[in-house]
From TrEMBL:
Ranges of residues in domain Threonine synthase N-terminal: 2-79
GO biological process, one term: threonine biosynthetic process
Annotated protein name in UniProt: Threonine synthase
Cofactor section: pyridoxal 5'-phosphate
Pathway assigned to this chain's UniProt record: Amino-acid biosynthesis; L-threonine biosynthesis; L-threonine from L-aspartate: step 5/5
Keywords: Amino-acid biosynthesis, Lyase, Pyridoxal phosphate, Threonine biosynthesis
Reaction(s) catalysed (UniProt annotation): O-phospho-L-homoserine + H2O = L-threonine + phosphate
Keyword Lyase among record annotations: yes
GO-annotated molecular function: pyridoxal phosphate binding; threonine synthase activity
Taxonomic classification: Bacteria, Pseudomonadati, Bacteroidota, Bacteroidia, Bacteroidales
Gene3D superfamilies, A to Z: 3.40.50.1100, Threonine synthase, N-terminal domain (3.90.1380.10)
Residue ranges of domain Tryptophan synthase beta chain-like PALP in the record: 93-378
Amino acid sequence: MKYYSTNKQAPLATLEETVIKGLAGDKGLYMPERIPSLSKDIISKMKHMSFHEIACTVAQAFFGEDIEPDVLDKIVKDTLSFDTPVVHVEDNIYSLELFHGPTLAFKDVGARFMARLLGYFIKKQGLKEVNVLVATSGDTGSAVANGFLGVEGIHVYVLYPKGKVSPIQECQFTTLGQNITALEIDGTFDDCQALVKSAFMDSELNGHMKLTSANSINVARFLPQSFYYFNAYAQLDRAGKANELVVSVPSGNFGNITAGLFAHRMGLPVKRFIAANNRNDVFLEYLNTGKYNPRPSVATIANAMDVGDPSNFARILDLFGIYGDPHKAICGLISGYRFTDEEIASTMKRVYNDCGYLLDPHGACGFQALVQNALDANETGVFLETAHPAKFKGTVDSILASDIEIPAKLQAFMKGKKQSIELNKDFAGFKAYLMAQ
Ligand SMILES: *Cc1c(COP(=O)(O)O)cnc(C)c1O
């Protein structure tokens, strides 16, 4: 399978080139030339399959032409050492819990898959060292750093906005050492993302070191996220609840929902999607007006969604480019909601008190969007619970007046010593630092 750039100015690339490069030469995002479809028969059989079998079926459809079946099977197996259970919350609303991985957030899936696939390609090509640059608003950094920790031939630089990630998030990528370097940037997440993008475009820097990205712009990171949409379907199908599925995705860079849209295009029976946003609502505005106006992000209590210019928007537009009126087609499948910090907090309180279910601030947006969307009786709503509430313990405890337990996996990180390098947000300083490596 070949991959093209959303900007259509770069040559087609193989999977190997796509994964190693990350972003296309024309600054576009890579898209598979064709989206394979899974038959109704296969999809209806998924209720009898394990998560591993489901994921292998989906992975095979996308990557089967390019990777030997046993290698792919091993990569999938090593990626998914945990499950993504669907849990009932209230009425016809279910939580797809994506926080059972090593860093307790959904990004573990994509990060672990990408680390293994990239490691495999590097070895195959006999490359010396590849440097992964990753900008994070919190959860990406921890998932990527842990997914890539100790992978031979790869060095990871995590760029994060100083003072804007929670201490629990911070310790998950600043305490690892080995092949992981944390860069503390005096700026916002968008500044971090801009630095990474500039680095990829700088020919001198690219001559000095081989660079790639592990943000959800990388195909190997966002596509594997489609695995758990199928897994959610299988579980709800088993319970006889999968006929009219409405899927609500707390969204920031829109990689997660894009993977869901890919699953849908592959044949997954989802009636419609909801993109749930915090106050960073450029996508909602696009749905309402047809105009996309990126702007600086604002800080919220759902900080992994503080994104003012979602990078995967280009993929969504491209995906619907086959329709005469893409905006109309997008509005036909996806609706949007936005929530203020106060609304997020009151949702968390109500659900905790009424249902005994602990939502994190991101999942709360997904949940509340389903409530406000007023599902009809035949519909089943499922929201993606994207992180464990303990990752945002300070926020969660102050809202719920609770003292939630920190899972052992997280406590282990907190015992480590923070190591980071402080840089400001101008590109010259960042480049000089990398040139010296
Ligand atoms: C990254 C993240 C999101 C947003 O996901 P995107 O793929 O960027 O839209 C939502 N919730 C949590 C907890 C996250 O870490």
